Amino acid sequence: MRRYQRLWPVASVVLGGLLAALPVEAAELESWRFDAQQNRLLFTTDEAVQPRAQFLFDPPRIVVDLPGTSLGRQTVNQSVGGGIREVRIGQVDGQTTRLVIELSPGYTMVRTFQV
């Protein structure tokens, strides 16, 4: 019996490592659309996701990362027009989908955006 008690901590570490290596189910980006009338990007996922957004310069763009989310298709580029040059959606890595709203030159943001 003592022999098994000594092996249990080692077995639990090995088992934990194997479980950690199994693929993790990710949320999926189900749909999205850019509402040009309201300058609003709308998207839905099949599970709860906590987006992370940031504004970047040169070129000016809003970047929204959806951690734990897969795109499930090829990268998407959509020209919009007006103050928004284009919207791009792609898979950054195996567990993050990124939405990029690239602003047209000279476009200024008047209101803040919500995430």
Can you put this structure into words, describing what you see?
By secondary structure, the protein is of the alpha+beta class. Helix content is 17%, strand content 46%. The chain is built from one helix and eight strands, in the order H-E-E-E-E-E-E-E-E. It has one helix at 2-21, and strands at residues 27-35, 40-45, 52-56, 61-67, 69-70, 76-81, 84-93, 96-103. Strand 1 and strand 2 (40-45) form a beta hairpin. The longest helix has 20 residues, at 2-21. It starts with a helix and ends in a 12-residue tail after the last strand.
Can you tag this structure with a few keywords?
single chain; 115 residues; alpha+beta; 5-stranded antiparallel beta sheet; 3-stranded mixed beta sheet; 8 strands; 46% strand
For this entry, what is the oligomeric state of its chains? single chain
Q: What radius of gyration results from the CA coordinates?
A: 21 Å
Quick one: how many beta strands? 8
SSE string: HEEEEEEEE
The helix content, as a percent range, equals 10-25%
Strand order of the largest sheet: 3-4-8-7-6
- Largest sheet: number of strands, sense, barrel closure: 5 strands, antiparallel
How far is the N terminus from the C terminus?
56 Å
Structural class: alpha+beta
Strand residue content: over 45%
What's the helix count?
Answer: 1
What does the overall shape look like? globular
